[in-house]
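Q: Could you fold this chain for me?
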Amino acid sequence: MVPSLLRASMYVCVAPVLLLAGASAAAQSSVTHTPADALPNVRSEPVAQVQYVEDEGRLWARGATYKASAGSDGFTYFPYLGSRAARNYPVQFRLRSARLDGQPLSLTEDARVKRDGDRIVLDRGAVRGIYDLSLDSVEQSFAVDAAGSHGALVLTLDVDTDLAAEAAGGGFEWIGPEGGVAYGAATVLDASGRTAPAPMTLRDGQLEVTVAAEFLASAVGEIVIDPVIRTFLVGAGSATELEPDVAYDATTERFMYVYEVFFSSTDTDIFYRTFDVDGVQDDTGWLFLSNTTTEDPEVANLNAANKCYCVCTGRLGSTRILQGRMRDMVTGVLDPIFPVDQSFTGAWDAFGADIGGNGTSNPAGTFLIGWTREFAAGFSRPVFRTVSSTGFLGPIFEVETSNSSLMDQVAISKSVGDGGAVDRWNVAYRQESLTTGDVELRGVQISGNGSILSQPNTLHSFPSGIDCVDIDVSDAIVKPGIDPTYVVVYDEVSSADTDIWILACRNNVRRNRVHLQALEHGQIERTQIEPRVTTTRDEFVVSYLEREATGLGFSVYLTSLDLVEDEQFAISENRTLVGSTGALWSGGCAMVSRFAGGLVSSRFLGLAWAEFGPASGAMGWDINGAIYAVGGPDAVGIQNPTCIGTVNSSGERAFMAAYGDASIDQPKTLVATRLPADSFGYFAVGSMAANVPGAGGSQGTLCIAGAVGRYSNFVASSGPEGRIALVINPTSLPTPSGSEAVMSGTIRFFQLWTRDSFQGTPTSNFTNSVAVVFR
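A: Sure. Below is the predicted structure, expressed as structure tokens.
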């Protein structure tokens, strides 16, 4: 069986100050809240990353708001309650027992402690306690061989502390005179996306966590954190609100949302709101307020200074200019408004700005602003300048000086990425020749100190009649053995269609180009627009809008992509529906990850999009927000975007993914979703890729060939959820002549065949296929 995983989180709560990294429980506690200017007291000293020390058989860790130790006797969490606290108030967790269907699981007396990066594992045999440490929180998980079992799973932990316990929001808090620890509610999620709460009770110092038998009976693969944490309304006034953007500050654990508010058709202003990671509003105010049009706000964060900077387009008479304003996320103080670029003579317009921040602890870190200068002579160029934490504006510089092109749609990564391994902004922009009309997508990289690292390069050239809009670019992901890799997304526009494409780039050179909807095996026939991209510690996340089946309005989707085989994409979460734009649409879904704000181990995102609807009591545009945790397990199967099947009787194309690592001896999990309900099917594996529509009279497309082996002994029903999953063993893959144990470098292609019906006539269909490169 494959380990099942339960997760809960621990955070520090300090009286009179409360700093949380996502525990909704604390919002309902009796701890007193004070203004944000008190928040620095939570940290004992500047900490850039979790530090570890081994001492006399114990592993110690020091974050920004806690200490922790792990040993054979369990895990102990020491909240930092201020240097004036009378003493420490540790909370120790030790697994007492694990019962499956009423029967005890065998646990070793002592835990075997192992650390891998910011993950600490306490192995007790049948159960492994997993602790993922970030600067401000610890996420606790339990891996148990329980998937597919009968009966409930019950874990009992001894909790030893002098702090007083109280229930809070599905979890618990342990509170003392100076503060305490918040312990979030536990949730289970299996590899195919099924979720369920894991109820907890606390009696006489024993914490009991229960996973229902119904969930375990059909659970397959590793269980991970619940995806959408909370959706909330950012702005819901009577005025029209559009064009949101969002940044994240790690010290205060706050997302800062900025957006346009219409006063009239010729007068728009920029408003901000800050929210904690539970979606609870903290502060609001006007950033730009005038009697002219101020529009297109973009915002980023400077982690070392705890400041956010918003840049937007304003007006000086009929000339467009750029303005910027900084907000201190700790004190709430707003700096004066500064002009970023303006022409007093009308020689150029400045507009279309984007901004990148710096999530590192480098005190000399700056913002990078990029925008379009459109000259009266008819050409335009991308220009840039840095902004320091004190508001000092660096000199304006150009990366290209051509007078024969239109260069616009400047996009900058949200931060410089990991300061030690990356420390650069990734930049992309559009270039159109004024003589031929040909369009190119160009790229450049700029270092964290504002110097140009590589000369501009063409990332993609478009055929005649094809254009690109809505460009966005991510921070880089660092993988062993390869240079940092980042993603550029854009909407490819022709007279007949719009499609979203993804470029995998490294050192300002394109390494791969993929059609997103083909990779998703999704609704290719529908219109997809307004892509955005962000980066977590190890995944790219793409948001986009897709026209709804009614033809009115758009749905907001997210898809998460793992980087495998250097530059290939494996989908870990496919088409997560986040919300809707209502009957109309305006702009895309803005995103920021806590990774960009400096919490490099975090998977949490802040989202924002405009919705047309009656949220404020009258039909109009409002800003929706969501806090989202990217929770898909590690994907290893590379979806084939060139073998596209047909829609089945569910109204969708069936989708397949493979989860696990690339090793030749560890199990992998195959998961097929969007299948016809209650239909039977089985997986097959081939040695080659293929593209055979209507194979064997099927309605679908066969995508595998060569030596094809069938898991015909594992025929399964898709059930009411339209899902089939199977754990496979690479040492025993089926072939026409028996089974094989794959060797390193072997590539195998997997697909699922399922029964179906077409207009009442029995038939069959297929999922897409995935390729696994074994290592």
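A (continued): The chain has two helices and 60 strands.
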